Amino acid sequence: MEKNTSHILGTEKIGKLLLQYSIPAIIGMTLTSIYNIIDSIFIGHGVGPMAIAGLAVSFPLMNLVIAFSTLVSAGGSTIASIRLGQRDQQGATEILSHTFMLCLTNSVLFGIVAFIFLDPILTFFGASADTLPYARSFMQIIILGTPISYTMIGLNNVMRATGYPRKAMLTSMVTVVANIILAPIFIFHLGWGMRGAALATVISQTIGMIWVLNHFMNQESTVHFEKKVWKMKKRIISSIFSIGMSPFLMNASACAIVIVINNSLQSHGGDMAIGAYGIINRLLTLYIMIVLGLTMGMQPIVGYNFGAQNIDRVKQTLRLGIIWGVIITSSGFLICELFPHAVSAIFTDSGELIDIAASGIRICVLMFPFVGAQIVIGNFFQSIGKAKVSIFLSLTRQLLYLLPCLLLFPHWWGVNGIWGSMPVSDALAFITAVGSLLIYIKKIGKQSLAN
């Protein structure tokens, strides 16, 4: 372990501790987002605007890949940190082995189904005759690499949650550097186009997976693989899925929403509008991933202190997390409002595509500052094992608010109605998250008085 985690998580100053754990996670998640942005930039400039649209059509399927991986990784990492807080070393080791096996099983099953039905899936996701070949070429390689990506994501989250935030950050750094080196070679020099971008991604993830596996094979790691704990237990599987269900549903609902957005954009704006959404999605995802990195840094602190019944430290961590989350998304709001054309031009040389993306992003980010708080609050409930509340908050923005807006607004305002659906749902989701948090704080306050 990088430090005596069982000591510092319960005693170190929260501000210092949150910096120590969040900065590596933020760097890691930022690098992960840059990892995806690099693909978009190289594809946009090396293949063309239709390739950007084809990549955007692939987003729902990539969201599903992430959804099924977080079903295991989020639950496994949360429970592992709680077990360590309870001084249950054996329990944390069992969680590790279950996380590894479930990642492999889920990825193989998902990959088989997705590969067999790839063309119908992509068409349903909004692909046209012009963009389907690009989307297919990219996703065939990505799907074949799902066991690698699942394992890397799942075990890297457990590594971070069990006291190795810097080492987990290095996983992202290694994969990003490898992708930066390989992608331009495969796309430009070898002329492999979309397949080259996907192959660079899978090879980079393979390097990251080897790095993570090496950590857990080391007997000196706080939590490591042990022969005696490989027997799968229904109780543990159920616990992992229960807590992982919240981020799974969040990503699965995001998949459903992107399908609706793509098909609506296809109807009202065509392939170029879908390509513009691909650019907007990549840009906003960068800031969301930074906030998610913050919540990953919060998770072991919150989980440990919640398990140890240090409620005041849990509250302090949450308070700081909300403040930092709002600062992060507010910076995204300012950049996208002030320089929409400049940030859109990073991805393409097409003037038409830049104009559509710049117009859309200024509408999409109107309520973006509040998104940081909403994400932090939702992940807070996940970190303390309140799966039902976390699931509810995960679904409110995507399904309860955004979906109805997407079905109604385009009929009145066309493409601008699609863009406008996002800030409306952001504001409503923020109000819901704050309300849920206040109810919970009031509840634990009454319990403290009763005790």
From TrEMBL:
This is Multidrug export protein MepA. Belongs to the multi antimicrobial extrusion (MATE) (TC 2.A.66.1) family. MepA subfamily. GO terms for molecular function: antiporter activity; xenobiotic transmembrane transporter activity. It is found in: Cell membrane. InterPro entries: MATE_fam, MATE_MepA-like, MATE_MepA_subfamily, MdtK-like. GO terms for biological process: response to antibiotic. Pfam families: MatE. One of its GO terms (cellular component) is plasma membrane. The keyword Protein biosynthesis does not apply. The chain crosses the membrane at residues 21-38, 50-74, 95-118, 138-158, 170-191, 197-216, 236-261, 317-336, 356-377, 389-412, 418-441. It is a multi-pass membrane protein. Keywords: Antibiotic resistance, Cell membrane, Membrane, Transmembrane, Transmembrane helix, Transport. The lineage of its organism: Bacteria, Pseudomonadati, Bacteroidota, Bacteroidia, Bacteroidales. The keyword Transport applies.
